[in-house]
Write a structure and sequence with these properties.
This protein has a domain of about 90 residues. It has 12 helices and no strands. The longest helix has 27 residues. It starts with a helix and ends in a 9-residue tail after the last helix. The model has no long low-confidence stretch (mean pLDDT about 85).
Length: about 300
């Protein structure tokens, strides 16, 4: 197995875990309130990172701590909002809507970095907007409050991705991940006084928390940091794009969720729009068109 093949296999495993988290959150939702779920999930991840980095803690630089705090607070707010949304909609719809962060990222770049979206981004946005309409309104019921919350979280994640690009330069990725995960847990804890706390120590919840803390937090963070550099960004994004498909398949078998024909078409359009937005430059090059280099 080549280095690239191994890396892409690990990224696929990472994407599978990401897709499964929507189902796991739904499984645990009856037994725990949304913010407490996030706090415990990332708390478990922070403890594992702490034990792994015990001898390196004194070497974490101040600028890494500042960036980790900033990114962790933003991620914490986004994931808490997303969890509230997942609790009120289906895992399948939540996964496809979350995928829209790939579309919101170029819009965030326009505002934060003054980098205007390209024509492919605009076409992608139009396609995913119609796909979102079909996904959330297949029977004319309209977007529900849970869908709306997940959409807000996807917007925040788009902004978060831009700030990750800004704040990760020149920093130890593992140190930054530890600080960020710790702050995400702390942010969720700060939100707890504002929610009606629920906690039932069931087997389902115990398994869900361990899975989310170990696999969906620590393992995926390490895997993406370790292996994404061994393949191309283009191939990585293609792998990541199948996340909502994985979520929809697992939701069908585990939760008996069915999107319906219009929902499936809408989800498909969202993926097509995301791919067009991501690979518009490559498409233009293949067609022999001139493309302005990415700054």
């Amino acid at each position: 197995m080549t280095i690239r093949s191994r890396a892409e296999l690990m990224l696929f495993a990472t994407t599978f875990i990401w897709g499964s988290t929507f189902v796991v959150v739904k499984v645990g939702s009856p037994d725990i309130s949304p913010s407490l779920f996030v706090a415990l999930r990332f708390g478990i991840g922070a403890v594992i990172f702490f034990l792994f980095l015990l001898k390196q803690l004194k070497f974490i630089e101040k600028h890494t701590i500042k960036s980790g705090i900033f990114l962790g607070v933003m991620l914490g707010i986004g994931i808490v909002i997303q969890n509230y949304g997942i609790y009120q909609t289906t895992a399948s719809k939540a996964a496809f809507i979350t995928g829209l962060m790939v579309i919101f990222t170029p819009l965030a770049q326009l505002i934060l970095e003054k980098r205007p979206p390209k024509i492919g981004n605009v076409v992608g946005i139009i396609i995913v907007t119609y796909g979102l309409y079909l996904l959330t309104s297949p029977t004319g019921e309209g977007i529900n409050f849970g869908d709306f919350l997940v959409l807000i979280s996807a917007m925040l994640f788009g902004v978060y991705i831009v700030y990750v690009d800004i704040h990760t330069k020149g920093k130890n990725p593992v140190h930054l991940s530890f600080v960020q995960v710790s702050m995400t847990a702390s942010t969720a804890l700060l939100i707890l006084p504002f929610e009606e706390i629920r906690f039932s120590a069931t087997d389902n919840l115990f398994i869900a928390l361990l899975y989310m803390g170990i696999f969906a937090t620590v393992l995926t963070t390490y895997s993406q940091t370790r292996f994404q550099k061994d393949t191309t960004p283009t191939r990585a994004v293609i792998i990541f794009t199948i996340e909502p498909v994985i979520a929809a398949v697992l939701a069908y078998f585990v939760l008996d969720e069915v999107l319906g024909s219009m929902g499936i078409i809408g989800g498909g359009l969202i993926i097509v729009g995301i791919l067009i937005s991501e690979f518009s430059d490559l498409i233009a090059i293949k067609l022999g068109l001139k493309v302005k280099p990415e700054e």
